[in-house]
User: Fold this.
Amino acid sequence: MRRTIIRTVLFISAVVFLFASCAERKEYRIGVSQCAEGRWREKVNNEMLAAQHLYEQDVKVTIASAHDDTQLQVKQIDSLGNAGIDLLVVAPNEAEPIAAAIERVRQKGIPVICFDRKVKGDNYTAFIGGSNVEAGHAIGVNVVDVANGIVALKHRPLVLEVTALMSSSPAQERHEGFAKALEGHNELDYVCREGDWSSETTCRIVKEQIESGRLPDIVFCHNDGMATGAYKALVETGTEGKIFIYGIDGMPDEGLDYVQFGHQLASYVYPTGGEEIIRLALNILTGKPYERENKLDGILVVRENVWSIATTTKELMRQ
Ligand code: FRU
Assistant:
């Protein structure tokens, strides 16, 4: 009889404990509002989804993609905010129009992490991403160096910058860093034309410059996807090998490969940081200390280091 009572008490306390511990295990729901697609977005999305399983907390990441459409992103942010998420992660397609939508989410007491792209004003809980000014500047320093090599060949170089959408913070900042690096270098000519992240627009702009009669010696595109458009323009005008192309992102199967093949002289690994984003989100959600501004390091990719970077990146992605 005594043994039965002990067994019953032990069984009930085990059930209570199990129930209590399940009740305590909260699932943290993180909504992600992505502005666009592409290799770079694919990589950061996969890293965030993988990071759901890295921590002792239960995490559920839901990703909405706005296909470069600001109005669609506003709608997606509002619906994520109404879907009972615990935290919003957002890469604003454009810095200004997204600010009001982020404000509406914060009004509900939901923390907001901006990543990769910034929102106009100061209304966010934390930011994490690469330095776009640094990316543009690193490319610019390399461009000046290559241009001086061309000057030595008694030819005055023309540098063409094709920017991405200038209402997005990465385009503004990549241009800022690049223009800073070229400042005062009167040994070269520098033309800047506004594009829109697409390879089609980039191809059109580069072809217009080539067909204007003055070949650009160097073309800097704000990302490697755009650089494929520049390369297409060279193929279509028969000027391959005459023009050096630069991009940013440094993704496997894209910019890293183009530098390896010699289609691009250089790229810049613009860090994705999907795992760091989720770690920052959980620090905020579990009341742990966190930095408001979190800069991720990038690196210039040139012929001399592209193989080691490609090997490391591919190994990390495999893991
Ligand atoms: C992808 C992308 C990248 C670029 C980043 C800047 O959507 O265009 O190519 O580095 O966004 O926000």
